[in-house]
Specification:
about 160 residues, single chain
């Protein structure tokens, strides 16, 4: 076996075409989720049910656009280097954040405005878990796998 066959950057397990499609599809899902979250935020009254204070409309749109940085960088890295886990972690972290943002807006709307929408309490519960677990897992994995997407040695597998 040559060294090129062992290198995951030159010999990825996923084709470049599939990686590009999956990475940019997750980016599109993030855009849709943030657009739906902003829509629900704008139609919900200013009575926050969570401990967070509600943002004004301008700041909410700015935060929505800025929150697309993680999935955008992740899609760029994952589409060009499919075997590098950093891009996929960025895509996943962005998707988890956008899911948390959307479920927060949905729970606020379902529990304060429209009681007909199903599962408001369950989605509020899910929001707290996604909001906590996503950044912690993504942060730890990014620190362990930076910069090339591989652990420093096999000993770090225990920590990962």
């Amino acid at each position: 076996m040559s060294l090129g066959q062992l290198d995951p950057v030159r010999n990825p397990r996923i084709s470049a075409r599939t990686a590009t499609w999956v990475a940019w599809s997750s980016w599109v899902a993030c855009v849709v989720l943030i657009a739906l979250a902003l829509l629900l935020d704008f139609v919900t009254d200013d009575i926050p049910l969570s401990s967070q204070e509600r943002l004004g409309p301008g700041l909410a749109v700015l935060m929505g656009v800025l929150s697309l940085a993680y999935p955008t960088v992740g899609a760029l890295i994952a589409s060009r280097l499919p075997a590098n886990l950093i891009g996929w972690i960025f895509c996943s972290a962005g998707l988890l954040y956008e899911m948390q943002r959307f479920t927060t807006a949905y729970a606020d709307y379902a529990l304060s405005e429209n009681f007909v929408l199903p599962w408001g309490e369950y989605i509020a519960w899910f929001t707290t878990w996604v909001g906590f677990a996503g950044p912690v897992l993504a942060g730890v994995l990014l620190i362990l796998l930076f910069p090339d997407g591989r652990l420093l040695s096999r000993r770090w597998q225990i920590v990962a």
